[in-house]
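User: Structure with xanthosine-5'-monophosphate, C-alpha cells only please.
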Amino acid sequence: MSRASAPALEHEESILVVDFGAQYAQLIARRLRELHVYCEIHPPQRAYEAAQRLRPRGVILSGGPASVYAANAPVLDRRILELGVPFLGICYGMQWLCESLGGKVEPADVHEYGRASMTLEREDALVAGLSSPTQIWMSHGDRVVRLPEGAVPLGTTESCPLAAMAIPARKLYGVQFHPEVTHTVEGKLLLANFVRHVCGCAGNWRMGSFVDLEIERLRKQIGETGEVILGLSGGVDSSVVACLLHRAIGERLHCIFVDNGLLRAGERESVEEVFRGHFQMDLTVVDASERFLSKLAGVDDPEKKRKIIGYEFVEVFRAEAKRFRNARFLGQGTLYPDVIESVAVHGGPTATIKSHHNVGGLPKDLELELVEPLRELFKDEVRELGVILGMPEEMVRRQPFPGPGLAVRVPGAIQRSHLEALRAADKIVRQEIEAAGWQKHLWQYFAVFLPVRSVGVMGDGRTYEHAVAVRLVESEDAMTADWALPPKPVLDRISNRIINEVDGINRVVLDISSKPPATIEWE
Ligand code: XMP
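Assistant:
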C-alpha cells in the first residue's frame, strides 16, 4: 500500500505546519483554511526539506505527546529556524522552540489539563485584540521554565507563568495552550493575528483552489493512461471523490458499489440512479452480501468485524480491478477524522480507537496505489467541495454512514433477522426525523439494534423481544458529538412506529451519550 504524494503546486503564500504527532494537528490546518491560507502539514523529519520547497510565510509547530528530553523525541532539523520567517510553537512546539534556542523545559509539578485563564503581559501583534484575562485550553505535562535569550513573556496563568512568549526581534512565538481548539475562546483570533499580521498573509486561498489543485495532483499521480477503481458507497465522501476523479480523468474512473448486505433500506437503488443515471459514470454494482455475511457469521468482536469487512472490501475491489488492465489505483473517500482515529495522518504516534475499514484494514500487499484526495479535510469542508463540484443538495447534506455499515450498529455477532429489523427501524428514524425537518440540526440520526430482550405487553399478550436504540447526534466534525433531543412528538412517532411496524422489537430507547467518552457508532 502506498500513497504517492504528488508535488504540491506553487503557492504565493503558505504556512508550513510541523506535525509533532498531535491529536489535533489537522485542526490547525483547518483553522488556516478558514483564514483562506494554503498550508501543508509535514512530519518533523521531512519538514525542513518541505520548507525549502514551499518557501512558507510562516511555520507553526504543533503540539505532541513526547517530551523534548525523551529519547524518542521527534527530531526536527534546527536549520529550519534559519528560514527567517515567523514561527508559532504550540505546546510541545513552544517547548521545542525554547529548548532549541537555549531555554529550559521541565516536567510540570501537575499535569495541566483543561481550561485556564490567561492574563496578557504586554502588547504584541500576536495577541492584538485579545481580552485580558482570556480563556485558554491547556493540555501538557512539560513546560518552559527559562526563556531563551531575547524572549519575553506575553501571557501568564496562575499555574503557568510562561503561557505565551515571544522573541520579538525574530518574530518567534510560543504558546503553551492550544489556540486551535474551540475551548480557547479567542484562539481563532490569535491564529488570525499570527497568519495575517505577523506572517503578512493576505488570505486569497479558497476551496475552489483546492479543486483545481487536487485535480492537477490527481492527474499527476494517475498519469495519462492510469485507471482508478473507486469504492463508491453513495455517501458524501466517496461521491465527492467520484466527482473530483471524474473531472480529473473522465471515463478512466471505474466506480464499484459493493452491496455487502449491510446497507440501509433503498441505498443500492439510489446509488444506481444518481451515479449511472444523473452523473453517467461507469458504475459496477457487485452483490457480495452472501460473502460478507457468511464471513461475519458468529464473529462478535468489533475490531474483528471491522477487519473482516475491510478485508473483504479490498478483495472484492482487487477482483474487480483485474477487469481494467490499467487500473493500478484505488480511490477512497477517507477523511481526516477517519485517519486520526486509526493511524496518525503523517505517521506520528496516535492511539487507535477504531480500525476504520477504509484506513486500517488494508493488507500490506495491496497492489493498488491509494488515491485519497480528502484525507486532510473535515466533513463540512467536503460538503463545501461537493457544492462547488455541482452535486445535488440532498446528496451533499446526506448524513455520514460508516464503511462497515449496519455491522457496527448490530453489536456482537450479526444475525440476518436482526439486520432486517434494524433496516426497518432505521428507515423509520430517517423518515420521521426528515418529516419533522430535524435533520438540519443533526449530524447523524439512525437506529442501533440491541441484542438484549425485554418483556413487553402487546394487546393482551406478553412479548419478549429485542430493543432498538435511537442515536441522534449533533456534531461539527465527528471528533466530538453531543446527543440531541427533538420534540417529544417526533420521538413518540419514532417509538410507536418502530414498535408497531418492526417485527421482533418491543422497546425503543434513546442514546444519551456524548462523544467523548462514547463514540457515535456503537462499535
Ligand atoms: P465514531 O463512531 O468513531 O464515528 O464516533 C465517527 C464518525 O465516523 C463514522 N465512521 C466511519 N466512517 N468508515 C467510515 O468511513 C468507518 O469504518 C467508520 N466508522 C465510523 C461514523 O458514522 C461517524 O460519523
